[in-house]
Amino acid sequence: MKTASAAVFRREINEDEEEEVCDDVFDSEVDSHQKTSKNLKGFFTSLLLMEEHEKQDQEARNVASRREMSDFQSNYRKRARTMSDYLSDLTEETNPKKSRISRAVASVSAAVEIEAESSEITGSGSGRGSGTGSGQQRRLWVKDRSRAWWEECSSIDYPDADFKNAFRMSKSTFELICDELNSAVAKEDTALRNAIPVRQRVAVCIWRLATGEPLRLVSKKFGLGISTCHKLVLEVCKAIKDVLMPKYLQWPDDESLRNIRETFETVSGISNVVGSMYTTHIPIIAPKISVAAYFNKRHTERNQKTSYSITIQAVVNPKGVFTDLCIGWPGSMPDDQVLEKSLLYQRANNGGLLKGLWVAGGPGHPLLDWVLVPYSQQNLTWTQHAFNEKMSELQRVSKEAFGRLKGRWACLQKRTEVKLQDLPTVLGACCVLHNICEMRDEKMDPELMVEVIDDEVLPENALRSVNAMKARDTISHNLLHHGLAGTSFI
């Protein structure tokens, strides 16, 4: 019994020793793990601190770089201004004609200031040395311009009278034009900037045509760049020519021709007249090619100033609406040659467009089977005087229409900045807008009316049709002996 008890006691002692050994091993492993965790925590903390210090150093370098660039630009602007003032004073004292040097230096100074503003907006730090590739994204620099005037004009509360004074048409007519040009003029937004709205695009073009102001003033009014305004004018004029001209400028149909004949006969007593034709001249800058062809001798002699021009020939109905146009021939060409170059001449002579009908021309046009002109010889009879008096009433219709055209679109009264190859498109757009205003009974301020003066030259061969000569004599006889002629010639 004692031996068995001793064995059991020794076994219990051994088990206790093994448990103590295991406890010691576990405690040592726990201590080792805690030490390792502390070491790792300290390592990661060191990395974070290093990154934070590196970011702070990079920000400090960026701030110093921006401050250095700002100081450099400020000093450069000061030196440019000083040099500009010095050269300006120097050139004005020595030779006023060389003052353009000072203006050039001033423009350089302005360019430097703009570049400085651009650098400040886009940011001088691009993050190239950060090591993380997280530099600032560059942005498109756009000069800040005021659009207050246009925003005021486009508001609902803006008075219609003021709007019409600025754009030569009412708000309703303007909205009609915008709606019809929307598909041809609208642009989509891009990632760099928002597209200019259709209403503003059309307004830039119409205001430029209506006022004839230079592009720098158009830029200030609408808060756009000068080149942008020039581009918008040409784009909208082309859209007007392509979209609106086929609708608002076309030869009348049979029913319209009948109404026109009746109206003209009521005015003049002459039957079968379907239009009043007139040719006017638009002043232009001397072109670089074919200068002699565009030289206008008659305007030069009258104005005592060298003049160049381009022609517009139009047929007008009793309401002052253009029904046929011929634009673009040089100003040195007389009216009869312009007529021969027109599509109307070809359609009437070869296509029989005006068979049995008359277009009332002026002294510069020849007498044709379809063109009726006044007597031009001296020592006229009473019958011929009576006829010429009635023809002047027909001519007044087309002259007044051109007077409203030039009065409504002041760009036609002075030499324009548009290139010669783009000028027919602009002139065509003015004529289409004129038709829209006339059709919608847009009243024009009488003060804007322009007196049209074009020195007409008699053609070398004024009588080109024997039948037309006989018909004109018959019309003259009927006017006088049927009591249809006036008495102002007596």
TrEMBL record:
Q: PANTHER family in the record, alphabetically? A: OS05G0593000 PROTEIN, PTHR22930
The UniProt similarity line reads:
Belongs to the HARBI1 family.
Native organism: Arabis alpina
What are the record keywords, sorted?
Hydrolase, Metal-binding, Nuclease, Nucleus
Taxonomy of origin reads: Eukaryota, Viridiplantae, Streptophyta, Embryophyta, Tracheophyta
* Molecular function GO labels: hydrolase activity; metal ion binding; nuclease activity
Per its record, how is this protein called by name? Answer: DDE Tnp4 domain-containing protein
Where, per UniProt, does this protein localize?
Nucleus
Which cellular components does GO assign to this protein?
Answer: nucleus
| Pfam families with a match to the protein in the record | DDE_Tnp_4
